[in-house]
Amino acid sequence: MSGELGDGNWCMGTHFSLADVAVGCALGYLVFRFPEIAWQEKHPNLARLYGKLMSRPAFADTMPQG
Question: What is the three-class DSSP state of 10?
């Protein structure tokens, strides 16, 4: 997935889509439940996408607190 994302802005090209939401939810689950997994270092393209998603208030507001 990280390789296919490459330098692209979003999963499916130039527009935000449901694919980005799905990937973001999966990555958010990893961050919340398995913080010891250092996926960001191994997959910088996914880390960039996740950061971009978390900058969207509608996405960031759904992150569990705690």
Answer: strand
Largest CA distance in the chain: 34
As a whole number, mean pLDDT of residues 30-45 equals 94
* 8 Å CB contact between 15 and 56: no
- Name the E strands within the chain: none
pLDDT digits (tens, 9 = 90+) for 20-34: 999 999 999 999 999
Q: How many domains does the chain have?
A: 1
Q: Is residue 65 a part of any domain in this protein?
A: no
Under DSSP, is residue 41 helix (H, G, I), strand (E, B) or coil?
helix
